[in-house]
Amino acid sequence: MSSDFPVAPKSTGFHRWRDYALLSGLFVLVLTGLASLAAATGWDETLTQLRKLSLLEVSILLALSLVNYLFRAVRWHAFTRCLGIGTHLAQNVRHFLGGFAMSVTPGRVGELIRMRWIKRETGWSFERTAPLVLVDRASDLAAMALILAVGLLFSGAMIRFAIPVTLLAFAGAVLVTRPALLSVSAGLFYHSTGLFPRLMARVRRAARSLKAFSRADILTLATILGLIGWLAEGYAFWLLLTWMDANISFWLAVLIFVFSTLAGGLTGAPGGIGGAEAAMVGLLLLEGIPLEVALPATAVIRLTTLWFAILIGLGIFPYAEAKSNAKGAT
After folding, report:
1. For 282-290, what is the mean pLDDT?
2. Which of 170, 216, 270, 284 could tie 104 with a disulfide, CB 3.0–4.6 Å?
3. Are 204 and 235 contained in the same domain?
4. pTM of the full predicted structure?
5. Residues 32 and 43 occupy one common structural domain
6. Alpha carbon distances (Å) from 209 to 8, 55, 132, 184, 316
7. Quick one: three-class SS letters along 7-31?
8. What's the pLDDT band for 221 if we cut at 50, 70, 90?
9. Same domain, 148 and 201
C-alpha cells in the first residue's frame, strides 16, 4: 500500500548534484541581482557600509542565527518525544540541522530527508512521521505571526502590508494545530466545491495524526521556542542596521525581517529566495533607509541566516547520512 504522504527523494548521485546545481544557481542569481543594484547606485557607498562590519560583529550575527537554529531544533526534539518516536536529543538535533541542506529544494520537499533518516534509525514509516513537518511549519507560522502582531503594535508602520500576511500566518497555524478544525475545513471544502478529493482525503488523514500535538503544554512550549528563535534573528537584523548607522527602531527592523521572510515563502521560491530580498530592500526604502544601506544590509542578513543554515546543513548532511545508513544496516 502506498503512503498518502510525500516521500523523501532518493539519495542518488544525480539528485545530489542537481540539488547542488540549483543551490549554486540561486545563490549566484541573488548575488547578481543585488550586485546590479549596488552598481547602479555606486559601489563606493555600498562597500563603505560593508567595511563598517568587523569580524566580531559578523560573528555576533552568526551566533544569533545559531540561537534560532538550536531553539527550533529543541522544539523538533519536543515534537518527536510527543509523537513517541524514541529518538534522543543529539539525534534529533542532527536530523533537524542536517535537513537545512535541502532548504532550497522546490517546495522544500528535500527537507523530508529528516523523515528518511528517522525511518532508517527507528523503523517509523513516512506516514507516521510526516505530521512532524506540518506541526514544525505551523509552529514557525504561529511564532512569526505573533512577532508581526507585536511589531505592528509597537512600530505603527506598514499596516497595509503586514496585516494580511499576519492573518494568513495565524490562520495556517490555527488550522494545523487544531486537527478537528483542519479535518472539518477539508471536508467542507470538498463538499462545497467537489475539487481535489484525494488531496482533501489526505488532509483529513493528516489531521487525525496531528492530535498528538494538540495539547496546550506542547503548543505553548513550541511557540515560546519559536519566538525566541525568530526574535534572535530579528534582533540580529536590527543590530546590523544600527551598525550601518541606519535610524530604525527595534520593532520596525524585526517587523521588516519577519514580514520579508514570510513574504518570500509565499512566493513559492525555494527558501523564499528573490522574494524575501526584494521585500526587505523595498520595505527598508519605504522607511527612509537609503539604498546604499538597504542593499548590503539585506545581503548580509540573508548570508548570515538562510545561507549560513544551508552551510551548516551541508556540513552535517554526510554525517547524518552515514549514521542513518549504519543504523539501517543493523
Report:
1. 91
2. 270
3. no
4. 0.79
5. yes
6. 19, 47, 10, 14, 29
7. CCCCCCHHHHHHHHHHHHHHHHHHH
8. very high
9. no
Q: Which residues contact 306 (CB under 8 A, 6 or more apart)?
A: 103, 271, 272, 273, 276
Question: What is the predicted pLDDT for the residue at 88?
Answer: 94
Domain region containing 257:
13-178+214-329
pLDDT score recorded for residue 73 = 97
In the block, cell 512569526 appears at 144
192 and 67 both lie in a single domain: no
> In angstroms, what CA-CA distances link 227 with 58, 72, 168, 221, 262?
22, 9, 18, 10, 14
Rounded distance, CA 13 to CA 321, Å?
Answer: 13
Q: Please tell me the predicted confidence (pLDDT) of residue 71.
A: 97
Residue 110 has pLDDT above 70, yes or no: no
Q: Are both 204 and 81 inside the same structural domain?
A: no
Per-residue pLDDT tens digits for 14-56: 455 555 555 555 555 555 655 555 555 555 666 777 788 999 9
Retrieve residue 203's grid coordinates: 488532509
Amino acid at 2: S
Q: Tell me, yes or no, whether 46 and 193 share the same domain.
A: no
- For residue 173 the three cell numbers come to 497555524
Helix, strand, coil fractions of the chain, as percent rounded to 5 = 85, 0, 15
Task: Give the residue, 49 or 291, on which the prediction is more confident.
Answer: 291
User: Residue 247 and residue 262: Cα distance in Å, rounded?
Assistant: 24
Rounded to whole angstroms, how far apart are CA atoms 98 and 163? 33
- C-alpha to C-alpha distance for 212 and 261, rounded to whole angstroms: 29
The CA distance from 144 to 294, in Å, is 22
Cβ–Cβ contacts within 10 Å for residue 204, how many? 17
Query: Hey, what's the cell of 65?
Result: 542565527
DSSP of 220-270:
HHHHHHHHHHHHHHHHHHHHHHHHTT----HHHHHHHHHHHHHHHHHTT-G
